[in-house]
Amino acid sequence: MRAKVTAALISNFNKNISNISSVAVVGGSSHDPEVSALRAIEPDLIFHFFGIDNEFDDYNWTYLNLNTNDSLSRKNKFDLVISSQVLEHVWNIDSYFQNLVALVKSGGYIFINCPASNFVHGSPEYFSAGYAPEFLKNNLNAAGILVNDSGAL
After folding, report:
1. CA-angle at 114, arms to 108 and 118, nearest 5°
2. How far is CA 135 from CA 49, 50, 116, in A?
3. Tens digit of pLDDT for each residue in 73-126?
């Protein structure tokens, strides 16, 4: 399923890739399929990784706890913020959206991918899933973000 979602990301951004030079990967790593796919079409993209664990010793990595408002004072802003398979591991939904919004440049993009089922899984914690596209859209709208596209697979 993640391969299909990654293909949707690439399809959506392939036409806008010239507007993207910096990417924040929130809760992920350089091993994520979204990173590999974006690098394949634009090798010069600059990636920065945010999370609570730097499992792969990614350079350009910064600690970020999505359950707190850690990134609200960050000066670095990114053209694209990717959060893939992360939301179900966050208990503080408000902080999650505030952190993503704080990382994106004005006119930039936020890409969220999360499970639509409530299948419990670990790594490191699991709180909830089954988020409908309207849930994500309404939370982004409430945070001042215009949603161009949303959907489910």
Report:
1. 160
2. 25, 23, 11
3. 677 899 999 999 899 889 999 999 999 999 999 989 999 988 776 666 566 676
In angstroms, rounded to a whole number, what is the distance separating the alpha carbons of residues 82 and 138?
18
Please tell me the pTM assigned to this model. 0.88
CB 25 within 8 A of CB 49: yes
Amino acid at 67: N
List 47's β-bridge partners, or say none: 23
Short-list 8, 151, 18, 33, CA closest to 80: 18
Percent of the chain beyond pLDDT 70? 88
How would DSSP label each residue in 29-98?
Answer: -TTSHHHHHHHHH-TT-EEEEEES--TT--SSEEE--TTTTGGGG----EEEEEEES-GGG-S-HHHHHH
Place of tokens 């982004």: 140
